[in-house]
Amino acid sequence: MSIILDISGDEHITIDTFQPGDAPGVGDLFRKVYGEDYPVKLVYDPEGLVKAFEKHENIPGVARSSKGTVVGYVSIFRSAPVETVYEGGQGLVLVDYRKHGILRELIRYYSEVLAPAYGADAVFGEAVCNHVYSQKAWAMHGAIETALEVDLMPGAVYAKEGTTGRVATLHMTRMYRPMEHTVYAPRQYKEAMRFIYDGFTSGARVAKATDESAAGEPTSIESSHFEFAHVTRMTVRQAGQDFPAVFEEYERDALDKGMVVIQVWLKLSWPFIAGLTDWLSGKGYFFGGILPRWFGEDGLLMQKVAVRPNWEGIMLYSDRAERILAAVREDWQRVTT
């Protein structure tokens, strides 16, 4: 399936799935807009784009002009711990073509065509909160708010938009393959989690987390540092009784590298998760929300910010998002006072 847009008497745009022959044109498109400064360097690498597409790691949709150039691009790509959850983003349209609804149709294309065709369980986006436009765009295509990532991006990235202070993002997910499974809610997050799940079709059943100790297996954590944003993300694959000691080692490394924001991803399928969240709360980590299908089953976002979060800079488009913000801020106040 492709989408055809007639934009003038002698030119039309075809929105379609990426083909290897598009790769040089994708690089040209990004150079025309960003020079060599776009942070995702894959777009400049024709061979890398083709290989990532063949492995289903990065699946683009492109807008081709009938005059022979690539004038728009968007992709779904793997960034979650499980391969069947994709992130949607990297949307770009050449400046001279931005009044024809091309980006809107590119987003519709990956939502309605690419994600189902390539077996995505879910596709999520991180909509910036220094304005509400991207939040509304995600909502138009069936994405639901499930978490708030506080102070995720440095304000300097959006300085031309008049932004001051770090920028939060709203985690929004469109579910393609709901799966029945049980998630365990720590007592302090039970109300917020039930609210999030009540408006989201995921197949999850919320149960009370138990008082049992973490599993007997050794703790396994994967840590990724994003130096340009001063953000560290920790994926907790397994949590054992050595969790505090192992975690503190990873946290110390992040702080030594000057990270401002630390995110922790935990498995909501663990009945013993309450012990982990209690311990993390004691170290200043607070509730972020739910990450649908993050580990195959759902994940929980905990987060810590080294300075006072830029709460005043958060703009949200919906009452549901405001409710999530209230839960996040209330827990931040609880763990920091």
What's the SSE blueprint?
Elements: E1 3-8, E2 11-17, H1 23-34, H2 46-54, E3 58-65, E4 70-78, E5 85-93, H3 102-117, E6 122-128, H4 133-140, E7 144-153, E8 167-175, E9 181-185, H5 190-198, E10 204-208, E11 220-226, E12 231-238, H6 243-256, E13 261-267, H7 273-282, E14 286-291, E15 299-305, H8 319-336
Give a short summary of the structure:
The protein is an alpha+beta fold and 337 residues long.
Word description of this protein:
The protein is an alpha+beta fold and 337 residues long. It has two domains: 3-120, Gcn5-related N-acetyltransferase (GNAT) (Aminopeptidase, 3-Layer(aba) Sandwich); 181-336, Aminopeptidase (3-Layer(aba) Sandwich), CATH 3.40.630. The chain contains eight helices and 15 strands. The strands form three sheets. Strands 1-2-3-4-5-6-8-7 form an eight-stranded mixed sheet, with helices on both faces. Strands 11-12-13-15-14 form a five-stranded mixed sheet. Helix 6 (243-256) links the parallel strand 12 and strand 13.
How many individual helices?
8
Distance between the termini: 55 Å
Instruction: Supply the number of structural domains.
Output: 2
Strand-residue proportion:
25-35%
CATH top level label of the largest domain:
Alpha Beta
Largest sheet: 8 strands, mixed
